[in-house]
Design a protein that fits this description.
This protein has helices spanning 2-34, 42-52, 60-77, 94-121, 123-130, 146-175, 181-185, 187-219, 230-247, 250-259, 265-270, 272-286, 292-313, and strands at residues 139-140, 228-229. It is mainly α and 316 residues long.
């Protein structure tokens, strides 16, 4: 009877040891499965060896551990990669914006200086160009320094005509990051249109407005001896040309405001009377002679350009 009890106790101890071993192997298999880099883990290697050992071929725990490890390795080798998070763009600081603005201003000043030097060298050609509207009229200077100042003014206006489009382009590049994607796509077209409108305004002023203005103004003193100061005449023509070129950009400004959703075509259409009055006031300010003739000559194309801008805004 004592022998039977001993055999029974030994059998119970063996079953308990097997249960403990199975629990430990299962826990090791779960831990290795949760480890993403388990392909190089020594615990996994030991489990695989145990599974492949003939002595343990009948051990279901080792076999299940090997299957679990194989599945884990297959998942790792399947090429599933975590999505790479792109670093967000750094926002420029206030000092950074000032530095960027300084660079843009320097570019404009360099362009102005480069254009000023040849313009000063060929000031005689420029003077001949702007005095063409004067027929049988001679210009005089009244001070010793006036010829030099006139040459500087001629070079200044010529360089400004070259630098103004560059200035506007640099401003657009500076504010480009703050613009919407829809407006950024149209910046190249808008820049080309700006150059065309500016050149068109200067040509329109030189060919049509200045001859009419000069003829009308000189006709007011038909019975007087006319000695025209070269200094004042150059200032008059120079600001006339630049002012007309700038005011011809109004359609482009309107298109930009409409694209930026600041104003709408319907609002501009409802307030057309106010817009027409503003155009007339601008023309009165831009034209140096303040005469109704030149103001009217400038106001007509400006109103047409305004209507053209509203028309284009419906399609773009």
């Amino acid at each position: 009877m004592g022998l039977f009890k001993r055999i029974k106790l030994k059998a119970g101890l063996r079953s308990k040891n097997k249960a403990k071993a199975g629990t430990g192997n299962a826990a090791a298999g779960i831990g290795n499965t949760g480890y993403t880099g388990g392909a190089g883990n020594t615990n996994n290697t030991d489990n695989i060896r145990n599974a492949g050992n003939p002595e343990n071929a009948g051990d279901t725990n080792n076999t299940s551990n090997a299957d679990t490890i194989n599945n884990t390795n297959n998942n790792i080798g399947s090429g599933s990669k975590k999505p790479e998070n792109k670093a967000p763009e750094k926002e420029m600081t206030f000092v950074g914006h000032l530095e960027e603005l300084r660079k843009r201003i320097i570019i404009v000043l360099i362009v102005f200086a480069v254009a000023f030097i040849p313009a000063y060298i060929y000031h005689a050609k420029i003077l001949e160009f702007i005095t063409a509207p004067l027929v049988n009229k001679k210009l005089v200077f009244l001070e010793v320094t006036e010829p030099f100042l006139v040459n500087v003014k001629l070079a200044f206006f010529a360089a400004a005509a070259v630098a103004i489009p560059i200035l506007v382009y640099q401003i657009v590049i500076f504010i480009k990051p703050a613009l919407s994607a829809r407006i950024r796509k149209s910046l190249s077209v808008l820049a080309i249109v700006f150059f065309i409108l500016f050149a068109g305004g200067v040509a329109f002023s030189y060919k049509l407005m200045i001859p009419v203005a000069v003829k009308w103004l000189l006709g007011q003193g038909a019975g007087l001896v006319q000695n025209l100061s070269i200094n004042k005449y150059v200032s008059f023509i120079g600001w006339f040309l630049l002012g007309t070129g700038i005011i011809f950009e109004m359609p482009l400004v309107l298109l930009f405001l409409i694209k930026a959703d600041i104003i709408t075509v319907a609002q501009l259409r409802r307030q057309w009377r106010v817009v027409y009055i503003v155009i007339l006031l601008l023309c009165a300010i831009i034209t140096p002679d303040w005469s109704p003739v030149t103001m009217g000559v400038l106001a007509v194309p400006m109103i047409l350009l305004y209507e053209l801008a509203l028309l284009l805004a419906r399609f773009f």
